[in-house]
Design brief:
Number of strands: 14
Keywords: Kinase, Phosphotransferase system, Sugar transport, Transferase, Transport
Helix content: under 10%
Order of helices and strands: EEHEEEEEEEEHEEEE
Number of domains: 1
Structural class: mainly beta
Strand order of the largest sheet: 9-5-6-7-11-3-2-13
CATH superfamily: Glucose Permease (Domain IIA)
Mean pLDDT: 94
CATH class: Mainly Beta
Number of helices: 2
CATH topology: Glucose Permease (Domain IIA)
Pfam families: PTS_EIIA_1
Radius of gyration: 16 Å
Protein name: PTS glucose transporter subunit IIA
Largest sheet: 8 strands, antiparallel
Shape: globular
GO molecular function, one term: kinase activity
Main location: cytoplasm
Strand content: 35-45%
């Protein structure tokens, strides 16, 4: 009897959600993210305002202000993408929705556009955290930092 696949690692790759520098979540200037209160992940210091799905899945939520969205990915992973810091205060200014809740997306599908200049003019940080909110499914998470890496983070599932 063969045990094919029994010891195969279960991994999910998260792509960078924006063009820019990928950094550890601990570098986000907001305690809820940097102290991993919402979960673990990575962040992007963006140079471009197109926000893409980090993984294939279904968009389960887009906040009314368009500053954040959630994706239910394979294996039940729940991913939160939060565009900028304190950007909820902009009440949607500078954000344009490209996808809708319930929509199936592939990794790299554009979901939102943000005008980075509006964020700058309003005094908001553009750093964008990407967080796995149900960490009980995760055995390990490795961030691949630097300027727009092919894979931003690799998740090993339990």
């Amino acid at each position: 009897m063969k045990m094919l696949g029994l010891f195969k690692k279960k991994t999910v790759n998260l792509l960078p959600v924006m063009e820019g520098e990928v950094v550890p979540i601990t570098e986000v200037p907001d305690q809820a993210f940097s102290e991993k209160m919402l979960g673990d992940g990575y962040a992007v210091k963006p140079v471009d305002g197109t926000v893409k799905a980090p993984v294939a899945g279904r968009i389960v939520q887009i906040f009314p202000t368009n500053h954040a969205f959630g994706i239910l990915a394979e294996k039940g992973l729940e991913i939160l993408v939060h565009i900028g810091i304190d950007t909820v205060e902009l009440k949607g200014e500078g954000f344009r929705r490209l996808a809708e809740p319930g929509q199936e997306v592939q990794a790299g599908t554009p979901v939102m556009e943000v005008d980075l200049e509006v964020l700058r003019l309003r005094g908001k940080e553009s750093i964008t955290p990407v967080v796995v909110t149900n960490m009980h499914l995760v055995k390990g998470l490795k961030v691949h930092g630097g300027p727009t890496p092919e894979v931003a983070a690799e998740i090993e599932l339990k």
